[in-house]
Specification:
Length: 141
């Protein structure tokens, strides 16, 4: 299994971050250069996301929130193609007047194609995308 994670301090308390992060329609605002939310399910607990990489390589993930523990944690699943499954976690912890936010993903199962992509820079691309998302979250008002 491969884990990819990024953590950042954000100058807003968990109670202010939670409504934004728990609505998948907002996630595209955090990742404009890395991922695009193509559609969100009517119940807002699932989405179709296109992740773009170098040299025109992209993957489409079907995501779903599996558990929401307000205001601290979102747990989800991402299915990429027919053979890759990942778990996704947003953890929001109080830190002073703000929050410490960790965005992480664990590759539970990967197709041969996706294993090659991870080795050839996909892991680094995802971590950088997570860092950028957290930086954007810190700019949200």
């Amino acid at each position: 299994m491969v884990e990819i994670a990024a953590t950042a301090d954000v100058a807003q308390p968990p109670e202010r971050l939670w409504p934004f992060l728990s609505d998948l329609r907002n996630h595209w605002r955090l990742t404009p250069s890395f991922a695009e939310v193509e559609s969100v399910d009517g119940d807002r607990s699932g989405a179709r996301v296109r992740i773009s990489g170098r040299f025109g390589v992209s993957r489409t993930a079907r995501t779903r929130i599996l558990e929401a523990n307000e205001p601290r944690e979102l747990l989800g699943r991402a299915d990429v193609g027919r053979g890759t499954v990942g778990s996704v976690r947003w953890l929001i912890e109080p830190s002073g007047d703000g929050s410490r936010v960790t965005l992480s993903a664990e590759v539970v199962r990967a197709s041969l194609h996706d294993r090659l992509l991870l080795v050839l820079g996909g892991r680094r691309l995802l971590r950088r995308g997570f860092e950028d998302a957290l930086e954007q979250l810190g700019r949200m008002r």
